[in-house]
Design a protein that fits this description.
about 210 residues, mainly alpha
Length: about 210
């Protein structure tokens, strides 16, 4: 993964959600040996959680998918899902900001947010990459984790819808993330509906494009 955090305390009601967020982050990474060699650990972690935990069933299906397919098949499918179309990108600020000046501001603010909470960010990855957000949400103080996921819930909902249209097993992974995200409020619903109807802003600013899978 991309971040490291100094030890922080967490309230007792957080461990199950934190575990599911961390597992989802791993499952949404490119399925190389670093991921596939941890599948037994993923199964063990899920087995220790109450099956009634929100997101447990969805994430269990993802882990079974990764376990039941060979590495070449998994790699080809991951590229097809996430690297071919921007509307299925894992870089979440694309959904809300598009290729605009605002996206650069969002990325800079995210880096500052991570630093403020004890993270040293790896510069070879963008801070809005969903596995990075989930690693943070798995170990950060609850208020910070919940606030970050709430900020990107509209993007997560659109991503889940797009993955559902494709019929990929990764839709279950994003469904699990949504299950352990804060419940949407009226503003989140409004933003998600507006983005679903109009798509992200399209202002181009003469910069090199972000790696959104175009």
């Amino acid at each position: 993964m991309k971040l490291r955090l100094a030890p922080k305390t967490r309230t007792p009601d957080q461990p199950a959600r934190a575990t599911l967020r961390g597992l989802a982050g791993w499952c949404l990474q490119y399925p190389d040996n670093a991921v596939l060699n941890k599948l037994e650990l993923f199964h063990a972690c899920l087995a220790q959680l109450d099956p009634a935990t929100p997101g447990h069933g969805e994430l269990s299906r993802t882990v079974r998918y990764l376990s039941d397919n060979d590495p070449l098949t998994l790699a080809a499918h991951y590229v097809e899902v996430f690297d071919r179309k921007p509307r299925r990108t894992l870089h979440l600020s694309w959904f809300t900001d598009g290729d605009t000046r605002r996206r650069g501001q969002t990325l800079a603010a995210l880096k500052a947010f991570y630093r403020d909470h004890g993270f040293t960010f790896a510069e070879n990855e963008l801070p809005d990459f969903l596995p990075v957000l989930l690693e943070f949400a798995a170990v950060a103080p609850p208020a910070a984790a919940e606030g970050l996921l709430a900020r990107f819930t509209p993007a997560l909902r659109i991503l889940h819808e797009q993955l559902g249209k494709l019929g990929t097993p990764y839709k279950d992974t994003v469904a699990a993330v949504l299950a352990v995200a804060p419940p949407p409020d009226d503003e989140t619903e409004r933003v998600a509906a507006a983005l679903a109807e109009s798509g992200p802003p399209a202002e181009l600013v003469g910069l090199e494009p972000f790696p959104t899978g175009r």
